[in-house]
Amino acid sequence: MVIELVFNIILGAGLIFFMVESMGLPAGENPNDIFGASGFPEILSILALIVLIFITVTVLREKRKINIPMFNLRSPDGRRLVINVLLLAGYVALLNVLGFCITTVLYLFSGAVAIGYRKWVTLTIFSIVTTTVLVVVFGSVFYVPLPRGVGMLRELSYMIY
User: Fold this and answer.
1) Nearest in space to 157 (alpha carbons), one of 142, 137, 141, 135
2) What span, in angstroms and rounded, lies between the C-alpha atoms of 9 and 60?
3) How far apart are the C-alpha atoms of 102 and 93, rounded to whole Å?
4) How far is it, in rounded angstroms, from Cα 87 to Cα 2?
5) What are the pLDDT digits (tens) for 65-101?
6) Taking the CA atoms of the chain, what radius of gyration do you get in angstroms?
7) Shortest CA distance to 86 belongs to which of 70, 104, 107, 100?
8) Taking the model in full, what pTM does it have?
């Protein structure tokens, strides 16, 4: 129970810090925008704090250790969580080197394999189609500058988006 309370206190402090920092965002120039740039982060912070208070009260009432299998590293779910966190870290680290297309296909494929999905053909099609949709929507329609990679991969990415 003590670990959960310490974790909740640290998380609550982080949420309050996030909320205070978001209050410093500049107000928008659009008169129809009621909340401005800080509205969405503030709403999320307040909702997260409400949920955190609810969870903390539940922990105090129960007065026992809460067992979430996903956070138990000895369980298969816990190991899958760690593997996926490592895959996500690798995805972020390789994003600027390999570019968005290759890295996203590899991440989607390996992430699904890590959680136990074994239909290889379906998984390959899913990874490629999802990456294609993301590139078209964000790279071509919304003109979001997606990472292009380095060297030859960078030149190839200009042919795609």
Assistant:
1) 135
2) 13
3) 13
4) 30
5) 667 777 777 888 888 989 999 999 999 999 999 999 9
6) 21
7) 107
8) 0.64
pLDDT in tens, 105-142: 999 999 999 999 999 999 999 999 999 999 999 988 88
Q: Say yes or no to pLDDT of 3 above 90.
A: no
Nearest CA among 37, 39, 42, 52 for reference residue 17: 42
- DSSP classification of residue 116: T
Q: Is 101 exposed, middle or buried (0-12, 13-18, 19+ CB in 10 A)?
A: buried
CA distance 145 to 161: 9
Token readout for 77 is 């779910």
Residue tagged 């299998």 (tokens): 69
DSSP annotation string for 78-89: HHHHHHHHHHHH
CB atoms < 10 A from the CB of 112, how many? 17
